[in-house]
Every structure is written in structure tokens, then in C-alpha cells.
Amino acid sequence: MKGVHIFLADGFEDMEAIATRDVLLRGGVPVLTVSISNDYLVESSHGLQVSADTSWADLEVMEPGTDAQDVMIFPGGMPGSKNLAAHEELMEIMQDHFARGGAVAAICAAPGLVLSQLPGLSGRKFTCFEGFQDALIAQGAVYTPEPAVTDGNVITGRGAGCAVAFGLAILGYLKGPEAVAKVSAGLML
């Protein structure tokens, strides 16, 4: 899947989606929000109604040429993470995207529920909301309780309070430390 996409399911965690999007846009990274339903409106776990940039029905999946600069982002939240993980077509696209060398990023419950559906994560370091690490540990991945962890083309964040760090980790992966420093300074971090 070409480009940078944040996938939104009903019940997504507000901060994890919105702060990540904001950090990436401040860093000059074009990013699209995608509703995983055919409706553009998605409701967060706290009742915020968000109009996604595109809906599942209108999403164009352009697989040829997918590389490490293409990122699929999965915010956490409940039941948002469960809804993402239960979307079979999305999980198939994610698996193909990753197999082609694309990057995946997930925060909070999403690493354990969504990224655990990827093969080949043995030995990879990750973080997530405490209590959601078991599925990845069972595959041989290595849990660390850091705010954000980048291991190759896998980027993970711990939870809502780490959403800015997660966004900065994705930005650093895509554009390097200079972009992170510039956005961090603008955010007074």
C-alpha cells in the first residue's frame, strides 16, 4: 500500500490517532486517515466524531512498488483495536504490505491485537499497553516498556500518553532526526 495511512475503526483512541496525524503533518509527511467502514464518520472511544479522509469503499490500494517509506498506522483504543484486528481484508492487506517491505506502526492494544497477525516478528523489539504483549511474545518478539520503539520497519507505541513520542518515532523513521528535532522544538518538547 503506497503512502502513509492511519486506519480508524469505531472505538479508536482519540490521542493516538489525532496526535500521530498532527506530528506527521507538522513534519511534512502527507497522511490519510481511512475509515475501515464504508462510512466516512468514525466514532472514537470517547465519543468524538471524526470524518476520515477516505472510507474503506473509496480506498485505493496500490501495491506495486510498496517500500519501507509506505506506512500503515493502527491506533489503539477499545474496541477500536479489536475492530481493526477483526477486519479480515485489512489484515490481508497489512500482511501483503509488510511482506513487500512496507512499514507498520501500532500503539496501545494494536500491537498485540493487530501486529500479532504478522509473521516474522521473532526477535523484533516492541512496546504496547501493558497486558497486550503476550501474543507477540509468544511469536518470539521482545517486549520493552519504552514510550515508542522502532525495530526496522516495525514501530510501536505504549499508549495514549506516548502518542506524541509514537508520532515522532514514525517521523524519525521516515525523515530522520533533523525532522524530529524541528517538530519537537515547535511543540516545545
Overview of the molecule:
The mean pLDDT is 96. This protein has a six-stranded mixed sheet. It has a two-stranded antiparallel ribbon with strand order 3-4. It has a two-stranded parallel sheet with strand order 7-8. It has helices at residues 14-26, 80-86, 88-99, 110-113, 134-138, 163-175, 177-186; strands spanning 4-8, 32-35, 41-43, 49-51, 71-74, 103-107, 125-126, 142-143, 148-151, 154-157. The protein is built from seven helices and ten strands. Strand 7 (125-126), helix 5 and strand 8 form a beta-alpha-beta unit. By secondary structure, it is α/β, with parallel strands linked by helices. The chain is 34% helix and 19% strand. The radius of gyration is 15 Å and the shape is globular. Helix 1 (14-26) packs parallel to helix 6 and helix 6 runs antiparallel to helix 7. The longest helix has 13 residues, at 14-26.
Short characterization:
The chain is an alpha/beta fold. The chain contains 7 helices and 10 strands.
